[in-house]
Amino acid sequence: MNENRAFAIVSALQETLDSSSDDEELISLIFSSSSSEETDGVEVYAVQRRGPMQKRPRIEEFVERTVPGFSSEEFKSHFRMLPETFEFVLGHVGPLLSTAGPSSRPQTPAKTQLLLVLWLMATPDSYRSACTKFNVGKATCVRSMRRVCRALHTLARRFIRWPEGQRAQEVIGEFVRASAFPGVIGAIDGTHIEINKPKDDEHNAYCNRKGYPSVQVQSICTYKLVFTSVYAGHAGLSRIPDYMADPARYFPNDSHLVGDSAYPIHPCIMVPYKDNGHLTSLQKNYNFCLSSARTSIERAFGVWKNRWRRILDRLPMVTMEQIPEYLLAVAVLHNICIQRDDLFVLSETNYK
User: Pfam families this protein is in (predicted)?
Assistant: First the structure.
């Protein structure tokens, strides 16, 4: 389907989408991602009507009047970052969100798109409820999510970077001062993110040992919780990072990662001794120091999930190709916030 035809269909369906009571599951059935740079080139698969059309109420001028009246604390409680951090992110993604597509309809302002998406990422609010609050249609809501995630994805190499040179020495020093474990360039671990049951024949591959469908995210972080590597959105077990194929470059001065006992013995990963009840005092001290360094990745996942609570619950996507892009996007936001000292204090210790 060409883009002009897609836009014609989308325009014709706009009132139906705006008036329908269907939730984000219906939106996922209607729209799928496009291979083009702009997500406006969508394909329409089906429209399901549930009862008579009703005009849905909207909140007028929430972005124009209510949000500017928030204090810094109120703004952060809703959007999970300070206003100054928001302006920084908007400065990077705004030009990518403002690119005009082939439609003649007015483009939703980049600021509105970003606020809307941050709201959805930070809360368990439904797309339908968010549309009411931000005074946009469901189609606009879905397109905004795709645009913002794609824009943040393009920034990943800038904000999720492996420490090299002087930065590598700084990271190693942070771990030594905090844990007394020498040579640590990062802590590695994986975590499961719950998803909807995939609609293809591979749904069994995504069913984890606890019985629910999920994708795995494997990350490496510094002691200050900054992600330096993120491998996201795939089924199955953790993988050995590609960095280990070139240890001379990525692991200077015999540096290494620290991981838990789920990882195999490897020259670039230090894992704990298995406690069989007969560990020596030196081995116990080794395990203690390693654990002190390794908990940084658990804390990083805890901050990441609690700041962006959508990933603490269940991702709404049913298109599997969208999930890695979404997870990498929130990882970019996580790093930007920490690098700008826009910190998030956990109110709970259950990191899931």
Answer: DDE_Tnp_4
